[in-house]
Design brief:
The protein is an alpha+beta fold. The protein contains 14 helices and 17 strands. The protein has a 6-stranded mixed beta sheet with strand order 5-6-7-2-13-12, with helices on both faces. The protein has a 6-stranded mixed beta sheet with strand order 8-15-14-11-9-10, sandwiched between helices.
């Protein structure tokens, strides 16, 4: 029995009728497809590695404490693992449409918060897996660690036989209230006692002062963002249905752009996405200014190496202005690069895990009301969510079948009607675009624009690499008398 962290509780309380808060993915494999029974037995053999998959959420009465994870005494894997197909030969579009419907539906919050679908019938003898896991259960980077649940590094991997499992006793309501009250007292004391002797209170004060200085130093940037015109037409109410699209790029292409034009691969990715949003807004006739931006929230993992395997969310975020109004793709890349460099400096100066941990002191009832009120009110500060989840550079297998590609699904909420999940696997980077059905009938324009953005930057990178360095011609200048009056060669630039 575990208690949710404050951040995980926020994701749990954010769930509503029109706001399913699960993350997901679509993985496509080379055939033939395994049987449904083989998939079920595989998962049963792996579940002991991740006990959370047999647990459900239990709220503390009167919300006197954060929600708990407890074993589900009625766990039935046949409910969570499902089997369907598209009409043969199923196209990518048919798979996307099916995935959009499946991923757009809410999980049953009274059961363990995950589902998996085995999809047959794809063309070229392929098949797929659609997976859904609630965001309160695991964030994207931890999700990469959970690939071991059913993925193998070798097609010849063997698996243990499923083992019997008995759920732990579910606590009573009175017991949960007592535990919550005890935790409310014990947790702050543990935090303070874990600090070096004599430095507890002083260290807390110092962290707050240092954090305040860093926040103050970033105020000019925040003020500038507040005055920057944003594409607010991308904000608005969210309905219950979703459109989903995807595109991809070769990792070698992105590295080539980075090498020639500077920055990081993430900078290049964001620059390509800015091209996609520019095409989208241009198609809608909404490029109102050359200073127009689409502000995207970029989650940043603060999980340390020692925290790998910990299922609690460990994320912070930054807000990046994608300069969609600027017609120059190189200027857009440079702007994004400058913003990310500034954020990196600020993140290094702040103890982000400690700040996230401060949420553990917020009263659960206030946390619940705060999250729900903020999402219901909506916001216009950011227009998109863009998250990059690094995947493995080596091939993965399920029951001996190689995974060909994978696409990430990121939820939308709080008036932000579009999210882009980026996933790297071997030599490919994919972009999974989740958008509100009514607001993004033109989601394919965004998808095609991202691909066009990659090609546009690649063209500039190759043009720069092909341009030879211009060398200055040498001219003869009279030498000083000490050199015997012999002429000495200098470059034309030096001569000027």
């Amino acid at each position: 029995m575990d208690r949710m962290s404050a951040l995980d509780s926020g994701f749990y309380f954010a769930e509503s009728e029109n706001t399913p808060m699960h993350v997901g993915s679509v993985a496509v494999f080379d055939g033939p497809a395994p049987t449904y029974g083989d998939v079920v037995r595989l998962l049963l053999s792996k579940l002991p590695m991740v006990p959370r998959y047999r647990q459900r959420v239990r709220e503390v009465p009167m919300q006197l404490g954060r929600p708990m994870w407890v074993d589900d005494p009625h766990f039935q894997i046949l409910y969570h693992v499902r089997h369907t197909a598209v009409p043969r030969p199923g196209s990518d579009e048919q798979l996307r449409n099916l995935a959009g419907r499946v991923l757009g539906q809410r999980l049953d919050m009274s059961k363990p918060l995950w589902e998996l679908y085995l999809i047959e019938g794809l063309q070229d003898d392929r098949w797929a897996i659609i997976s859904k896991v609630h965001h309160c259960m695991v964030d994207g980077v931890a999700g990469s660690d959970l690939m071991q649940l059913m993925f193998d590094l070798s097609p010849d991997a063997t698996h243990e036989a499923p083992r019997d499992w008995s759920p732990q006793r579910t606590p009573t309501g009175a017991g949960m209230v007592a535990g919550a009250l005890a935790e409310a007292v014990a947790h702050p004391l543990r935090q303070i006692s874990s600090m070096p002797a004599g430095g507890g209170a002083g260290r807390i004060v110092k962290q707050l002062v240092d954090s305040g200085k860093t926040v103050a130093s970033t105020l000019p940037s925040l003020a500038k963002q507040a005055l920057t015109p944003t594409a607010r037409s991308l904000n608005g109410p969210i309905g219950p249905h979703r459109r989903w699209a995807w595109t991809s790029g070769d990792f070698a292409e992105l590295k080539e752009v980075r090498t020639a034009l500077g920055g990081t691969v993430n900078d290049v990715v964001l620059a390509a996405i800015s091209t996609g949003f520019r095409d989208l807004l241009q198609g809608r006739g909404e490029l109102s200014s050359d200073k127009l931006v689409v502000r995207t929230m970029v989650p940043v993992s603060v999980r340390s190496d020692s925290q790998k395997g910990n299922l609690n969310n460990q994320v912070s975020c930054v807000f990046v202005d994608l300069p969609v109004g600027n017609p120059d793709p190189l200027a857009r890349l440079e702007s994004i690069r400058g913003q990310m460099d500034e954020y990196k400096k600020a993140m290094q100066a702040v103890d982000v895990p400690s700040i996230i941990g401060m949420g553990d002191y917020v009263a659960p009832t206030l946390l619940s009301l705060g999250v729900r009120a903020a999402l219901a009110a909506g916001q216009v500060w950011c227009q998109a969510v863009t998250t990059n989840v690094p995947g493995p550079p080596v091939p993965l297998y399920v029951l001996g079948r190689k995974m060909r590609s994978a696409y990430a699904y990121v939820p939308i909420a709080g008036g932000t009607r579009c999210s882009i999940g980026i996933f790297s696997y071997q030599r490919t980077m994919t972009f999974g675009i989740n958008a509100d059905f009514d607001a993004f009938a033109d989601v394919d324009v965004l998808s095609a624009g991202i691909r066009r953005g990659i090609e546009e930057l690649l063209e500039h990178a190759r043009a720069k690499q092909a341009t030879p360095e211009v060398t200055q011609p040498e001219v003869e200048q009279p030498a000083p008398a000490a050199d015997g009056g012999k002429p000495r060669k200098r470059s034309a630039a030096a001569a000027r």
